[in-house]
Design a protein that fits this description.
By secondary structure, the protein is mainly α. The protein is built from seven helices and five strands.
Length: 196
């Protein structure tokens, strides 16, 4: 039940973000109102991502809670003492909530951008744009400026990501959590001008 509730919560914020950004991006790039609804590809990504997200959050929390409860029960802790120990877990604090929200908003926004480019029929390549600064990972700085075909993944560290924040190809938290990177769409005209 907890996983289903998390998945529903994720979908309730991610779908409008992804859809709105896709429509805006498509409109800006193609100068038309083509992008009306999400494609099956984006809907499938969101469905897979919300389940993976929910299971990961549930598993991380469950493992820590189980450990604290098991240790506390063996020590003879009262329910109040156990509750206080649980409240002290990083899984229940504000920084984790903020990190999770930032990470998932980045993923949804970049997924929406990619969807808009797909629907525009104008953008055929994408470029990784690192946010930069001391908080950026070295792997993201190295990926900065990387240009790949629209449907190909970026190579970031030892991972492949379709866009910043994407975990669908197996990228783990080390490349996703708190990512502030974005992408730039490259049209055929811009690609040709880059080679002359």
């Amino acid at each position: 039940k907890y996983i289903n509730r998390l998945a529903g919560l994720y979908e309730s914020f991610a779908e409008p973000v992804l859809s709105s950004i896709a429509q805006i991006t498509c409109k800006v790039m193609s100068h038309s109102d083509k992008g009306k609804s999400l494609t099956q590809r984006s809907l499938a990504w969101m469905k897979e991502h919300k389940i993976a997200f929910s299971k990961e959050i549930n598993q991380t929390t469950y493992s820590k809670v189980k450990k604290v409860l098991s240790k506390g029960m063996k020590a003879g802790d009262s329910p109040l003492k156990l509750a206080n120990k649980l409240a002290d877990l990083p899984e229940f604090d504000w920084p984790r909530a903020r990190m999770t929200a930032r990470t998932e908003m980045t993923a949804a926004a970049n997924a929406g951008t990619l969807e808009g480019w797909r629907q525009s029929d104008v953008v055929h390549h994408k470029q990784w744009m690192c946010a930069g600064g001391r908080r950026s990972r070295d792997s993201h700085k190295k990926a900065d400026g990387q240009i790949v075909p629209l449907e190909e993944p970026f190579k970031v560290g030892n991972c492949e990501l379709l866009f910043p924040g994407d975990s669908s190809l197996g990228a783990g938290p080390e490349e996703i959590c708190n990512c502030r990177c974005t992408m730039r769409g490259i049209t055929d005209y811009k690609m040709q001008s880059n080679y002359h």
